[in-house]
């Protein structure tokens, strides 16, 4: 993280405090790089306000460190910035959750996302690359044709998937065909050293009659975030789920609303998020292979990160409902206290087990706007 340490010129402990701060962040996996164009100002003491003024810009984070009135100075610096017409977030305490977010944002800069095929044409908002650039996530575009040239069946993988399924409405031969996409994706990941990817999967389904659902399920199970439809913002959200929550995310569509019950669905899910799964077809195309997963009962959090530091989240508890055939295959119904869709952030959300509202609420202190 690019930082500027600021302290009063008469603070005789400034160097030792600077060393202490560096060691603290290093211990949490955050390497500090001193810069004249910082992402964060580490405010070590009172009397540093005038120095800090020269480094203020929209979005720079104020991080007071220690007990030498750095927090009080940060309040003065933030109020000055507001009067100048821009907001600078203030991290008011270095608790585990605050530091974890700083670590997540830094780790994102060390990832490498692959965009395999352009985002699907209907993602008129969600396919925007802006969030990748704003969060400084390295990425590369890979033509879908390169993936298609690498398709190869893997019989042992098909056997494993088939044997572990609770049931199947498709033939085993269809599962074997589905493994072609997995082997091709693995070659792409190895070749370009990708840590996450988004796939324009519908084109493959229509042209080759092979879906990406099984492959995306397997990579998400391996903790390699994999998003459907080339959805860039959902991919970033899934990357954050892996790092912040330590779990793969389930990329979902809102399929039915009858407040307070909301049903979400998609045709692929990480297998470690379900108690069991059956093999079926992909909903829209009817081709192989869709995953019908039975999710655990309990509390879930859905969230979505967007460009320009906008985000949304909500928490709900599962409600048992019969499976609907005319819907994406893996389905979950949540009871929500309020309707979270009065303002939308995109057609997909990412679902994770547990209540993560406390951690996600902290994003507002990093300058993110809750939609």
Tell me briefly what this model is.
This protein has 371 residues and is of the alpha/beta class. The protein is built from 12 helices and 18 strands.
Description:
This protein is of the alpha/beta class. The protein folds into two domains: 2-92, no CATH class; 113-370, L-fucose Isomerase, Chain A, domain 3 (Alpha-Beta Barrel), CATH 3.20.14. Helix content is 33%, strand content 25%. It has twelve helices and 18 strands. Strands 10-11-16-15-14-17 form a six-stranded antiparallel β-barrel. It has a four-stranded parallel beta sheet with strand order 2-1-3-4. Strands 6-5-8-9 form a four-stranded parallel beta sheet. Strand 12 and strand 13 form a beta hairpin. The protein is elongated and about 75 Å long. The mean pLDDT is 95.
Biggest β-sheet: strands ordered side by side in the sheet: 10-11-16-15-14-17
Largest sheet: 6 strands, antiparallel, barrel
* N/C terminus separation: 27 Å
Tell me what portion of residues adopts beta-strand conformation.
25-35%
Low-confidence segments, given as residue ranges, are none
Q: What do we call the CATH topology of the largest domain?
A: L-fucose Isomerase, Chain A, domain 3
Indicate the CATH class of the largest domain.
Alpha Beta
Work out the count of structural domains: 2
What would you report as the Rg, rounded to the nearest angstrom?
23 Å
């Amino acid at each position: 993280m690019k930082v500027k340490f600021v302290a009063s010129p008469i603070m005789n402990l400034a160097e030792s405090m600077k060393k202490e701060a560096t060691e603290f962040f290093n211990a949490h996996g955050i390497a500090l790089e001193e810069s004249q164009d910082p992402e964060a100002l580490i405010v070590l003491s009172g009397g540093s306000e005038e120095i800090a003024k020269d480094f203020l810009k929209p979005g720079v984070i104020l991080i007071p460190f220690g007990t030498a009135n750095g927090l009080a100075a940060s309040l003065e610096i933030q109020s000055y910035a507001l009067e100048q017409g821009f907001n600078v977030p203030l991290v008011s305490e270095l608790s585990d959750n605050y530091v974890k977010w700083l670590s997540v944002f830094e780790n994102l800069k060390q990832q490498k996302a692959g965009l395999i095929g352009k985002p699907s044409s209907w993602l008129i908002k969600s396919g925007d690359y802006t969030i990748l650039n704003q969060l400084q996530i390295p990425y590369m575009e890979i033509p879908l044709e390169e993936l298609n040239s690498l398709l190869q069946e893997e019989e042992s993988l098909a056997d494993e998937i088939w044997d572990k399924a609770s049931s199947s409405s498709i033939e085993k031969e269809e599962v074997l065909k589905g493994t072609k996409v997995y082997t091709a994706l693995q070659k792409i990941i190895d070749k370009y050293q990708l840590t996450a990817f988004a796939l324009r999967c519908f084109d493959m389904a229509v042209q080759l009659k092979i879906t990406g659902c099984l492959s995306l399920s397997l990579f998400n199970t391996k903790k390699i975030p994999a998003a459907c439809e080339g959805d860039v913002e959902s991919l970033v959200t899934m990357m954050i789920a892996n790092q912040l929550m330590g779990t793969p995310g389930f990329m979902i569509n809102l399929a039915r609303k009858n407040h307070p019950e909301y049903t979400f669905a998609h045709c692929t899910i990480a297998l470690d998020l379900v108690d069991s799964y059956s093999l079926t077809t992909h909903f829209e195309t009817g081709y192989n292979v869709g995953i019908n997963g039975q999710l655990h009962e309990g509390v879930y959090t859905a969230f979505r990160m967007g460009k320009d530091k906008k985000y949304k989240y909500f928490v709900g508890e599962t409600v048992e409902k019969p499976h609907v055939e005319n819907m994406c295959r893996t389905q979950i119904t949540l009871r929500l206290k309020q309707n979270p869709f009065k303002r939308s952030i995109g057609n997909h959300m990412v679902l994770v087990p547990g209540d993560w509202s406390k951690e996600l609420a902290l994003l507002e202190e990093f300058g993110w706007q809750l939609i």
